[in-house]
Amino acid sequence: MSLVRLKDYNTNDTIAAIATFLSKSALGVIKISGKDAINIIHKVFIPRRKKDIRKAKTYTLHYGWIFNGLKRGKKSMVDEVLVSIMRKPSSYTCEDVVEISCHGGAVVLNKILEVILKQGARLARPGEFTYRAFLNGRIDLLQAEGIKTIVDAKTDKALQTAVSQLKGEAFEKFNEVKEAVKDVFLSMEADINFPEDDSKVELKGVKNKIQKISAAIKAIQDADKESKIIKDGLVCVICGKTNAGKSTLFNTLLQEERVIVSEVAGTTRDAIEETINIRGIPLRIFDTAGILTPENFIEKKALEKSSKIFSEADLIMLVLDGSRPMEKDDFFLLNKIKNLRDREDNGRECKKSVIVIINKSDLAQKLNLKNISRIKGFKVKLSALCKEGIEDLEKAIVRAAGSFSGKKEDLVFLNRYQSEILKNAHKDIREAQTYLSEGREIDLVNLSLKNALDNLGKLTGEVFCEELLESIFNDFCIGK
Ligand SMILES: Nc1nc2c(ncn2[C@@H]2O[C@H](COP(=O)(O)OP(=O)(O)OP(=O)(O)O)[C@@H](O)[C@H]2O)c(=O)[nH]1
Ligand SMILES: [Mg+2]
């Protein structure tokens, strides 16, 4: 979809769009919003009871026919419909809104839309209805993001969180932080302007307040990260040496023969992604190549790909072959995971969960479990081939994901741009902290606080930011 610029969202005209899927379905809905919405429907609608639709009260339903708007007659009829009238300001957009419920199907929907456009409505751009709701003050930007998430929700949990965001809870959270920053900023400002005043700001108190603000922003950032997992899925990589049974496990989890499995070492070359829902947690699961010492170009590429996914994954599932003693490649991967963990302990890496899987439990076991005792993480014995022990793995996945999935009331959905702005606000606050601890001029501290205020204001919608608006509304579908 091409990028829509904010200037294209003219708010003076009347917009229309198909709001439902363009496929064979029982019902379809077309929305019209704007000052001419009711006039337009009047020109193309024949109510069964010969009432004037222009006089219809708000929140009323009208049965009748859409015709082509030219000549009334049997041939010009397009569809039998129900028209709902919602007058401003109590509508989705706060403007006059008309919704036409017609029969589903691409032809009829397109035909009705065409008739409406001919009467002077303009085809709505992505998210334009919601954009008008925002401009007219009915929703804030965080609620807009919440609406988008409701539409995109893949799991119950994502839906619940998005709904609470829609109720304005996220806005409250950001507003609280912003007010706290404003408080400190104003007290310092007063101190700069009236230095002779007795009420000199007490620096220790200020430091404490800023510390609290920093922690509050950090908490929202953590919640944002968790929410992204709930929304987009936990990125999970299946790694292990060749022939460990990675692809077999991948297929078993997917419950289909998605990838090729064979006793030839190096069967899987590419990284293959699928999304599955394990007990309510969406997993973006990757099967990767087991090759660790590439001998040709393809194998080199395969290794590069699996390494990249390994580094980006939230959850690592290391598959070991229980029917064989540990080998060089197993040790290599175990060490890689251990190093990662050590870096995490030093706070230099973001947290990853690890599940060590001892596969082929149906065969005689030759793997020395001592070798994996030093790895922190869940350990599961299973047979991917015989589908035994898969329940235990699922339980481990849920527990591993548990370290991500916080309480739903703490979560918040932000788009990438919003996350970036929040990150900048945090940077500003940390800068203010540094200046304070270095005993720098109050002016300098306040400059950082001012920047933080600006960034937080963008998130609450108080500060106009074109790029942010575009980033939100561009991602909407047309008709929302
Ligand atoms: N007995 C037994 N054999 C298994 C099990 N899991 C996998 N295998 C066999 O092990 C061989 C390798 O399995 P794959 O799933 O292709 O292994 P992989 O780890 O994906 O291997 P590469 O793609 O080459 O890295 C196949 O012959 C599988 O049938 C298991 O639980 N028990
Ligand atoms: Mg494979």
Write structural notes for this entry.
With 480 residues, the chain is an alpha/beta fold. The protein folds into three domains: 6-139, Gyrase A, domain 2, CATH 3.30.1360.120; 156-228 and 413-473, tRNA modification GTPase MnmE domain 2 (Four Helix Bundle (Hemerythrin (Met), subunit A)); 233-407, P-loop containing nucleotide triphosphate hydrolases (Rossmann fold). Helix content is 44%, strand content 16%. It has 14 helices and 13 strands. It has a seven-stranded mixed sheet with strand order 3-4-5-6-2-1-7, with helices on one face. A six-stranded mixed sheet has the order 9-10-8-11-12-13, with helices on both faces. β11 (315-321), α10 (328-345) and β12 form a beta-alpha-beta unit. It is flat and about 85 Å long. The mean pLDDT is 89. The site of guanosine-5'-triphosphate (GTP) has 24 residues, from α8.
Features:
480 residues, alpha/beta, Gyrase A, domain 2, Four Helix Bundle (Hemerythrin (Met), subunit A), Rossmann fold, 3 domains, seven-stranded mixed β-sheet, six-stranded mixed β-sheet, 14 helices, 16% strand, flat, binds guanosine-5'-triphosphate, binds magnesium ion
Fold blueprint:
Elements: E1 15-18, E2 27-33, H1 37-44, E3 45-47, E4 60-67, E5 77-86, E6 97-103, H2 106-118, E7 122-123, H3 128-135, H4 141-152, H5 156-166, H6 169-193, H7 203-232, E8 234-239, H8 246-254, E9 272-278, E10 281-287, H9 297-312, E11 315-321, H10 328-345, E12 353-359, E13 378-381, H11 390-402, H12 416-437, H13 442-460, H14 466-473
Parallel strand pairs: 1-7, 8-10, 8-11, 11-12, 12-13
Antiparallel strand pairs: 1-2, 2-6, 3-4, 4-5, 5-6, 9-10
Helix pairs in contact: 4-5, 6-7, 6-13, 7-12, 12-13
The structure holds guanosine-5'-triphosphate and magnesium ion.
